[in-house]
C-alpha cells in the first residue's frame, strides 16, 4: 500500500503520542530505563501541548509537522522548525515511526518530505540522537547526516548524544 504523508493537524495528537510512546519504549527503555521513558513521554507529549505545537507548526512557514499514514493508519510523524540559536538552520525535533514498521521506508519518506518542505527556508538540518540508539544512529548516517560532535544528554547525565547536520 502507498504511504501518504500529509500535514498533521491537532486532531492527530493522540495518534502521534501513541507512535511516540511505542517508539520511545522500543528504542530508549534499554538506554534510559522504562520509568524515565514514561516520564519523558508524559511530559513531552502531553496532549494539549502537542495539539498546540501541531497548530503552531501548521500556522508557520518556517516549521513543519507531518504524519505518515498507510490505509488511513498513522505509522510515523516528523516535526521540525527553526533552530533556537542559528537562523539558517532547521532543527529536526522529532521523527518517529511505529517499531513494527521500522526498516520499511516510512522514516525515509518522512525525512525526504520534511527536507523538501524546509529547503529554501534553511541551509542545514540539525539534530541530536542518543549515542546508544543504534537504530536512530544508523538511520541518520544512512541518510547522509554528518556527525559533528558528542554531547551530554539532558535526559540522564551519563547518557551521550551525537549531534548531526546535513545540508538542505
Architecture overview:
By secondary structure, the protein is α+β, with helices and mostly antiparallel strands. The chain has a single domain, classed as 3-Layer(aba) Sandwich (Aminopeptidase), CATH 3.40.630. It is 39% helix and 32% strand. It contains five helices and seven strands; from the N terminus they run βαααβββαβαββ. It has helices at residues 13-32, 34-44, 47-59, 106-118, 134-142, and strands spanning 3-7, 64-70, 73-82, 89-97, 124-130, 146-152, 160-167. A seven-stranded mixed sheet has the order 1-2-3-4-5-7-6. A hairpin with a 7-residue loop joins strand 6 and strand 7 (160-167). The longest helix has 20 residues, at 13-32. It is globular, with a radius of gyration of 15 Å. The model has no long low-confidence stretch (mean pLDDT 95). Residues 3-168 form the N-acetyltransferase domain. This is GNAT family N-acetyltransferase. One of its GO terms (molecular function) is acyltransferase activity, transferring groups other than amino-acyl groups. Pfam families: Acetyltransf_1. Keywords: Acyltransferase, Transferase.
* SSE pattern: EHHHEEEHEHEE
Helix content: 25-40%
CATH class reads Alpha Beta
Assign the CATH architecture.
3-Layer(aba) Sandwich
**Largest sheet, strands/sense/barrel:** 7 strands, mixed
> What is the residue-averaged pLDDT?
95
Gap between N and C termini: 29 Å
Please mark out the parts with pLDDT under 50 across 5 or more consecutive residues, or reply none.
none
Gyration radius, in Å: 15 Å
What is the third-level CATH name, the topology?
Aminopeptidase
- CATH level 4 superfamily: Gcn5-related N-acetyltransferase (GNAT)
User: What would the principal axes of the Cα set say about the shape?
Assistant: globular
Amino acid at each position: 500500500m502507498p504511504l501518504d504523508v500529509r500535514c498533521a493537524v491537532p486532531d492527530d495528537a493522540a495518534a502521534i503520542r501513541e507512535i511516540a510512546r511505542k517508539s520511545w519504549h522500543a528504542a530508549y527503555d534499554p538506554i534510559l530505563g522504562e520509568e524515565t521513558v514514561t516520564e519523558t513521554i508524559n511530559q513531552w507529549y502531553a496532549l494539549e501541548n502537542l495539539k498546540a505545537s501541531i497548530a503552531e507548526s501548521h500556522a508557520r512557514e518556517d516549521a513543519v509537522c507531518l504524519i505518515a499514514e498507510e490505509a488511513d493508519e498513522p505509522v510515523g510523524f516528523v516535526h521540525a522548525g527553526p533552530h533556537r540559536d542559528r537562523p539558517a538552520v532547521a532543527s529536526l525535533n522529532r521523527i518517529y515511526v511505529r517499531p513494527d514498521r521500522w526498516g520499511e521506508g516510512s522514516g525515509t519518506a518522512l525525512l525526504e518530505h520534511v527536507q523538501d518542505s524546509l529547503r529554501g527556508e534553511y541551509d542545514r538540518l540539525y539534530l541530536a540522537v542518543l549515542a546508544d540508539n543504534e537504530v536512530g544512529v544508523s538511520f541518520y548516517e544512512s541518510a547522509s547526516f554528518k556527525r559533528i560532535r558528542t554531547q551530554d544528554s539532558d535526559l540522564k547525565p551519563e547518557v551521550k548524544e551525537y549531534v548531526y547536520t546535513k545540508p538542505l
